[in-house]
Design a protein that fits this description.
Blueprint (H helix, E strand, L loop, with lengths): L6 H4 L21 E2 L1 H6 L1 H9 L3 H11 L3 E2 L2 H17 L11 H22 L3 H7 L7 H11 L7 H11 L4 H13 L5 E6 L2 E6 L12 H17 L1 H18 L3 H8 L3 H18 L5 H7 L7 H22 L3
Parallel strand pairs: 1-2
Antiparallel strand pairs: 3-4
Helix pairs in contact: 4-5, 8-10, 9-10, 10-12, 11-12, 11-14, 12-16, 14-15, 14-16
Protein name: DUF3196 domain-containing protein
Length: 327
């Protein structure tokens, strides 16, 4: 049995952001995973398996199986996949005792070695990945290609990626992934990009490689959401982090992003409340605006800023959720 055998049936995200309600007979606040949850994140588990991130897939499936799925067949498939992964990769069942940074470096080194073997066995491998940039591709295919191009050795990669991301506007998540890829490859200097109707200039070397590298005001917003959701809706905290990461990719380098960095401390609550409300709307098909405003202490003098932040979040949600559902 290979990873590809599961691509269509099992591809879900480790973040499981796709929708649920609460019951009482299962743990983790007993999230019911709506059908759109499975559809929304199909491509994510595919990426985990194809890039051999088996430990992440195991942990994600373990969480999924504590939730209530409306489709018993899918639940059985998840269990079968989990058992197969645990059998084939027992070393991935328990997290490493090393530091997170050391673990990431080790995984990167192993991935680089794996790709080097592929490149030696197939001299045209890198060129075929670069060819994907020349023709229309799904976001998922491009992300998979960029994951590999970050670690391959080829004299044309940096030039081709720079041309690809500057020639015309790309999906925001792809734009951000290209910047991360170029930084990982040691590229520095400014790039001029078209993004969401504006022209932005970003310095490649300033691109956060991990989402923990973003400036403090950004981290404070997601921490605020997680603190609140742990109190009133714990399952939301599980979905929030990765959705927030996608939002940062969506907004990075734009005027709204720069505004977030400049705003006062009170606006941490403004952005957190807007993001929390959009998650409730899009993920859980629920949400009460007045309750959220009250929860985060959004007073009348902050409502205008909240509405602005909410519009940005809505635009992001429409783009992201539509893509995941293949619309």
């Amino acid at each position: 049995m290979t990873a590809n055998a599961y691509e269509v049936g099992f591809a879900l995200s480790e973040t499981l952001r796709g929708g649920g309600v609460f019951l009482t007979e299962k743990p983790n606040d007993n999230v019911i995973l709506f059908p759109k949850t499975v559809e929304y994140y199909q491509f994510e588990l595919t990426r985990m398996l194809e890039t051999e991130r088996y430990g992440e897939a195991i942990r994600m499936l373990e969480f999924l199986l504590t939730c209530h799925n409306q489709d018993k067949r899918i639940e059985d498939e998840w269990l079968a996949l989990l058992q197969w992964l645990q059998t084939m990769f027992p070393d991935q069942i328990f997290p490493s005792l090393d530091s997170e940074e050391e673990e990431e470096l080790s995984e990167a080194d192993m991935f680089r070695q794996h790709l080097a073997v592929k490149e030696r066995a197939d001299s045209g491998y890198t060129e075929r990945l670069l060819d994907l940039l020349k023709q229309p591709q799904s976001v998922e295919n491009l992300l998979l290609a960029l994951d590999q191009l970050a670690f391959l050795e080829h004299p044309e990669i940096n030039k081709k990626l720079g041309e690809f991301v500057t020639k015309q506007e790309q999906h925001p998540i792809i734009q951000y992934k290209v910047l991360q890829t170029l930084k990982l490859r040691g590229v520095t200097g400014p790039l001029k990009l078209s993004k969401q109707g504006e022209t932005i200039v970003v310095d490649v070397e300033d691109t956060p490689v991990t989402f923990g590298d973003f400036p403090d005001p950004i981290g404070e917003i997601i921490e605020r959401i997680q603190d609140m959701s742990q109190t009133v809706q714990p399952a939301l905290a599980y979905f929030a982090q990765e959705t927030w990461n996608e939002f940062l990719a969506y907004i990075y380098g734009t005027a709204q992003y720069r505004q977030m960095l400049r705003q006062e401390q009170a606006c941490v609550d403004v952005w957190a409340a807007a993001f929390h409300f959009v998650l409730l709307e899009k993920v859980f098909n629920s949400g009460d605006k007045e309750e959220i405003l009250d929860l985060y202490g959004i007073t009348n003098d902050l409502v205008f800023q909240w509405e602005q932040a909410y519009r940005v979040m809505q635009s992001f949600a429409s783009s992201t959720f539509s893509r995941s559902q293949g619309e």
